[in-house]
């Protein structure tokens, strides 16, 4: 039995995995509901995008605490906390009379998911027999990838028939089942020792990231000097955080790993890859609804093939890296992504729906080939005792990349609402095309960096 997974352990992983699944599901499902929420609360796209950005920013800030939490609390305590935050947040959203309360609920959901995802992988790494650990890590990755893939379709079907709140109402039975299963299977098997936590450093990180997102969201408003001041303060906070992190024995994030030049360049491309990856799940559903005039269900179905392809390729692309090395799958993936984004940038609103679906599929196949392999390649370049720190840094970058990219895309699209000389769909299409041009340029630069970095690594 030492080399097999006990049924109780499998159920334990499933209980935490349900929470992780629900969190990622709402992240992509909410993007399809934005037009409906804009109408319900009488707000613009720049404001409603905080439904996603607030969630991802919160998860960004909780994930760096995961190592401290797992050292200081039992798995059962962490599971119950994650379940409490996520369920309370979901309940608040279901009954929220205003966007402000929806955002409070999304922050609580972000806390719950920020605890649940690292907890799921920690249970796998510490309790699953080594002979089956790789398989279960793949299952854990597939849980989150599948949730991201079906989220837009799930959201579109529910929004069209029952309204945007049903996205969250339908999760309540699932969350209750997860709680019951976790109470039965997860035990507090040890009494961990509480350890000190660098609250000042953590506060600097949180304030810096929040100020940057607030500044970016306010760039389109009438007070650009305020936004520039917020940007400046945010950068100062992050600089102080970086300085303190490299001068303490117990940093929140070990930034000393950035002294490794190869890791630094690959981490940069990991950030830009996920900025485009997660932003496209926001941009395309809104393109289908705001430009093409289709419903939420069509928008969800339009992104399903691409999202499913990325989900399938993310765990499987590692096999290509093992067989052919890093250069082929990563550079092929980045190249396919660039081709797809260039098509979007050139043709824009002239694409028919089926052409949009096919082009998005090409983009997501490319991202699926390179995203997880960039992470693997960057971690492989670190010493064994630095890989845990590298993993924490990359997971933090991934979450913030999504919040940053979504906020940036919403800022650009929101300009369409101020172009009174053009019809709303035409103005929105013009702004969408600018996003695709920007993303094409980012991936082109990324492809150049990857070509150089991977050649030196070889």
TrEMBL record:
InterPro entries: MFS, MFS_dom, MFS_trans_sf. The keyword Ubl conjugation does not apply. It is a multi-pass membrane protein. Pfam families: MFS_1. Keywords: Membrane, Transmembrane, Transmembrane helix, Transport. The keyword Transport applies. It comes from the Bacteria. SUPFAM superfamilies: MFS general substrate transporter (SSF103473). It is found in: Cell membrane. The chain crosses the membrane at residues 9-30, 50-69, 76-104, 110-128, 135-154, 166-187, 199-216, 222-243, 263-284, 296-318, 330-347, 353-371, 392-413, 433-454. This is MFS transporter.
